[in-house]
Amino acid sequence: MKTLATNQVAKSYVLGNEYLYTILRKAADRYLGGETLEETLNKAVVTNGDGFKSSIEFMGENISEEIKAVTATEEFIRICESIGSLKLNSTVSLDLSHIGLDVSKDLCLDNLLKICAAASIYGIEVNLSAEATHQTDHVLNMYKRACDLTNRLGQNVLAITLQAYLYRTRDDFNEIKKMPGRIRVVKGAFATDEKLSMKRGSKLNDAYMSYVDQLLQIGHKCSVATHDHIIQQEAKKLIDHYRPERHLYEFECLHGIQQANLKQLKEEGYMTKIYYVYGKEWYLYLCNRLSEYPLNLFRALEDMISVN
């Protein structure tokens, strides 16, 4: 599934085939905020009312045309303005390849700065998502360039995602933690060469927890972005030990996955956040969700054959 997720031919075929689009969209619906921003905002309002933070992302990646990158940027600005006008407790997330990273680094930087300017008006955090390993250097370099520029303007809104399964993350982390932006720690969702990353298991869990431990110890903004119950429980112990201010940490889960665990964390008094994605570019997202846990595949089959 991870290989299919990055196969552009397969993606184009599925999204361009009316029957496949309709049937697979039923499986994707479990994980989507909707196809429109308005649908997703309605869910975020409910989420906030229930005591959760939210994050909103307009889905898309690997854009190769400037006009599409500009259009996506305009949509992210609209997200910021909508969050601000509704006074939502929400952040914005995006892939740099959605706003022009593959077209031009200067275009991408310009688009990112426009989004940050809109977000800073309302104090909204903008989180840069992790992308496939061939993009890692580009994403981190863009983050550093944009942080330098936005910090000079007093727009300290940028955050970054680091993937614990990559061996290189140890060195990346030591540099990135010196910067003020929140570090969102994920295990890693992309197919990689075995020389580049760890397999799922205790070694990866230990690496993940070491990053969380260091961030909490130094009082750095941190997002524990995982559905792994064991890691959530270990992170709780660290939070109880270090007692960081509430705005410095959060437990984050994707909409539609392990919501009961996140609800329990919220009821225990921990900061929690639900991550919503929306749009029609859901192919990659669905593939990644199905690859994470065998039961998700059976749930997808159930969703696809449902008459509702």
The CATH class name reads: Alpha Beta
Share in β-strands? 5-15%
> In one word, what is the shape?
globular
- Which parts are unreliable, with pLDDT below 50 for 5 consecutive residues or more? none
The CATH topology turns out to be TIM Barrel
Oligomer: single chain
Give the termini distance in whole angstroms.
26 Å
Tally of helical runs: 13
Number of strands: 8
* Helix content class: 40-55%
> What is the mean predicted local confidence, pLDDT?
89
Neighbour order of strands in the largest sheet: 1-2-3-4-5-6-7-8
Radius of gyration: 18 Å
Structural class: alpha/beta
The description of the largest β-sheet is: 8 strands, parallel, barrel
Q: How many individual domains?
A: 1
> What CATH architecture do you see?
Alpha-Beta Barrel
What does this structure look like?
This protein has 308 residues and is α/β, with parallel strands linked by helices. It has one domain (33-281): TIM Barrel. It has 13 helices and eight strands. It has helices at 2-5, 8-16, 18-28, 37-49, 66-86, 105-122, 136-152, 169-176, 202-218, 229-242, 259-267, 283-292, 294-305, and strands spanning 53-58, 90-94, 126-128, 158-163, 183-186, 222-225, 249-254, 272-278. Strands 1-2-3-4-5-6-7-8 form an eight-stranded parallel beta barrel, surrounded by eight helices. Helix 7 links the parallel strand 3 (126-128) and strand 4 (158-163). Helix 3 (18-28) packs across helix 13 (294-305). The protein is globular.
